[in-house]
Amino acid sequence: DAAAATGVPSANVANALDATGFWTPDRLIASTLYEGSPGWTTQVVNGVTRRYFFYREANSTNMAYIYRTCSIEDSCSFSAPTVFDPGTSGVSAVHAGDVSWVCFRNAYSSGSIWCDWIDSIGTVHYGPDPIGASTNTTPTLVFSQDRLFLAWRAEGSSGAILFSTFQAGAGWSLPQYVSGAYTDDPPTLASNGTESPRQLYLVYNRRSDHQVVFRQYDLGNFDGADRELPPAERSASMSFNTWKGRPAANVFLGRLHIAASPSSDSGEAWYARCATNDCTTPGQWSGWAQLDYGVS
Questions:
Q1: Rounded to an integer, what is the distance from CA 82 to the centroid of its chain?
Q2: How many Å apart are CA 202 and CA 189, to the nearest integer?
Q3: DSSP label at 231?
Q4: Could you give the CA distance from residue 61 to residue 55 in angstroms, rounded to a whole number?
Q5: Cα distances (angstroms) measured from residue 122 to each of 25, 232, 250
Q6: pTM given for the model
Q7: What is the pLDDT of residues 38-81, one digit of tens each?
Q8: What is the largest CA-CA distance in the chain?
């Protein structure tokens, strides 16, 4: 699938959209092997850029990170790995203010989600952890305006999606169910961060028909109707009708971008984007296009 683990140890490889909207070539991040979905953050402190890469070590419960402090790609190497906690899922990481947050399913307390953060001088701080948050998959974490948003698939067989928020001075809110949202896979949050107006989306593979759908955050919840790309905006080359696994999503230049893997075992990744910042209006989406092949 496009964002979740297949259980196969993988080298850290990534590509990205450039400013013109074209995909850059694949780039080897590091030779370290990992399992589960990894996470990126970028901190800029006193003019120095530090890039963190968080991951779970292959064949291990070690949650670790590597980093580098140069801003020119490929001009310097990453640090040696630092193990900071035990975990049994992929990680979700986000930059908020001058710190980096990372959340994951921990290895000790059954299903509980732990969250740690790294300050501007590189010190790891443990907690606070979300209240009553537990899952058997990877949680998803974003920063939007002045708070963190964490979402996850409920532990067990219900498939319900819940979310919680964290704000400085207030701590974590109590978990809140997303009405009518059910999935067999980890959900994904996508945000434009500190930009205004706030754009915050929940993207997931709907349990009932395995379609990739999204909801927009409004009035304190994600309880609006599921929205999916209309069939007319599908690519003629698509030979499948359903998706599998966790979709990947991001808001870039005010537009929601989604990548997902088909239900077939072809290893393909497909990508679509909203043409404007009004992604809930029909006709605003590009057709699905094949992006690449992969194993995670």
A1: 22
A2: 5
A3: G
A4: 10
A5: 30, 49, 26
A6: 0.86
A7: 888 988 777 778 889 999 998 888 999 988 887 665 567 788 89
A8: 51
